[in-house]
Please model this.
Amino acid sequence: MKRKMPVLASVVALTMALTACGSNSGTKETTTPAGSTAPAATASTAKDTITALLPPVSPNYQKNFEQISKDFTALYPNLTLKIEPASWEDVKQKLDTQVNAGSPPDIAFGGSDGIPKYIEQGLLMDITTTATPEMINDYDKAPLEYMKNGKGLYGFPAYMEVHALGGNKEMLEKAGIDWKKVQTNGWTYTEFRDAIKKGVVTENGKTRYGFVFAVKGVAAVDYLGIMAKNAGMPHAFNKDLKYAYTSKNYLGLLKDLRALIDDGSMPKELSSVDAGKRWNMFLTGQTMITGKGLATFENSAKTNNAKIKAADGSAVKDSIPVDYIVLPAPTFQGAKPSAATVVDGYMTFRGKKEPTAEHKANVVKAAYFLASGKVAATTNNDLFAAHITQSSKKEAANMKIERNPDNVAAVDNMLKNATPARSDIPSELSAKAIKLETEVIVPKFQGLIAGEVTPEAMYEAVKTAAIAAFGADGIVKD
Model:
């Protein structure tokens, strides 16, 4: 799911393949602006190929690619869905390379928060008038909003989940933490800080921490962003479109997050913890609580438990049985809960040439096929993610999965406080905010975690950069 740090990889083969049979199929020369809409296309029997760049959305997702393509062609005999697999580490790099070359795949899986960036580059395809009413009406309303920007719709969401924390049930109870109460009522920063202090245990010279979060590379943004939502800053811009991270709450948040390391509740070497190490530390009993956690982590823990029981050598080395408990992030400075929602989906792209109405309609068919019905039901069950279309809910009714009912209820509680979509934020503002995040927030926050930058110094750096980007009147002043 979004968001492991991409690494540089060779993309020559992918570039050639997608340029040959990607979004250029069925295109025509035109002066129509990128992202413009066209009337819904009528059905066509002409052969066409739709390309898709897809990462391992769920543990078994990529194993089903051949069957997914066969099922799509069975439904649309004149169409071919050509899937290019990619790892989480390199999918963003591959997509950006294709976009920069002006020849992206027709469909790419990614986070909805990346939509403004690709709109600014002019190669996202608005499908507002091409998607049929049946497709639109199949969706729950809230997640579909995340794939919009302004009045445009730029693909279909795959799932809507929350970025939560995850706890080891046995350790939580030994520390005297009423995790069921936390699942129901949440907790303040002070309550959270006290709880994770109780989770710190030193035995035989080794320390078990109360809390560990993956922060190496771009994962630092996940940590800060999730907590900022619960500190009165649900988005980078407030309702008046003023940049929010110049608020005094932002400085308070930075101080609070640094304090968790200074308390000894988190490792001093936190800046070196990536997503893989974080999960390894949790499964091997080196931390009581981990983050960020999706519902699928319960499934991953159960799978590893089964391997331990069966003495399977593929179990994580030195791991222990773990009963995974979903927990909400704490709230800061008296703010209301605002759960960090993750809405990833199938973004629709176009090349430099305007696609024909027929090709555009075919891309929409393929994106919707991947995001709904049996494909979505199978994938979301694999993730323990909520189903967001009526068609996937219907398919999932006959698919059995085992989940902790307390965890299901906890996720439902968090979704009630989910951070709403903000399609009103202009793409140019979002693009500037992403640039500021990449160039200033990420390196400064990594320095803060490493003890090289103070909260005050980071806050001033962000404020200075925000004024340069948005003007003195374009930022929050409180």
User: Anything to note?
Assistant: Residues 12-160+343-416 form a domain with the D-Maltodextrin-Binding Protein; domain 2 fold (CATH 3.40.190.10). The chain has a mean pLDDT of 89. DSSP finds 19 helices and 14 strands in the chain. The CA atoms of residues 216 and 321 lie 26 Å apart.
